[in-house]
Amino acid sequence: MRPWFSDRTTVHRSWTCLRNLLEFNLSKVVFAKSLNTLDLNHNIYGSIPVEITALKLQFFNVSYNRLCVQIPIGGKLQNFDYLTYFHNQCLSGAPLASCKRSYNDLPRN
């Protein structure tokens, strides 16, 4: 998938997309390497792509979404507290407890 908020001439450091009517699969997004702020609460489903571990994030928020599976290990993802990941359908891994449901068990809209 082509990055839809990045191009070769623009350096994006922040992407804030919260509490709106967007709905997209986060695992399909290609992120600009310069990104240091990512706030996507109330929008997304799928999983957190491992590519996010390569970003030098200073702020990260994926709370109140429909994310499921394990939080990737690496980068700064484990440095953020549980509120960063709070209220997702089936997200597990540090700093959260394990989830007993799989993504395939969850209801779809």
What would you note in describing this structure?
There is one protein chain. The chain is an all-beta fold and 109 residues long. It has a single domain (14-105), classed as Leucine-rich repeat, LRR (right-handed beta-alpha superhelix). It has strands at residues 14-16, 24-25, 37-39, 44-46, 59-61, 66-70, 90-92. The strands form two sheets. It has a four-stranded parallel beta sheet, with no helix packed on it. It has a three-stranded parallel beta sheet with strand order 1-3-5, with no helix packed on it.
Helix and strand arrangement:
Layout: E1 14-16, E2 24-25, E3 37-39, E4 44-46, E5 59-61, E6 66-70, E7 90-92
Parallel strand pairs: 1-3, 2-4, 3-5, 4-6, 6-7
Features:
mainly beta, 20% strand, single chain, 109 residues, three-stranded parallel β-sheet, Leucine-rich repeat, LRR (right-handed beta-alpha superhelix), 0% helix, four-stranded parallel β-sheet, disordered N terminus
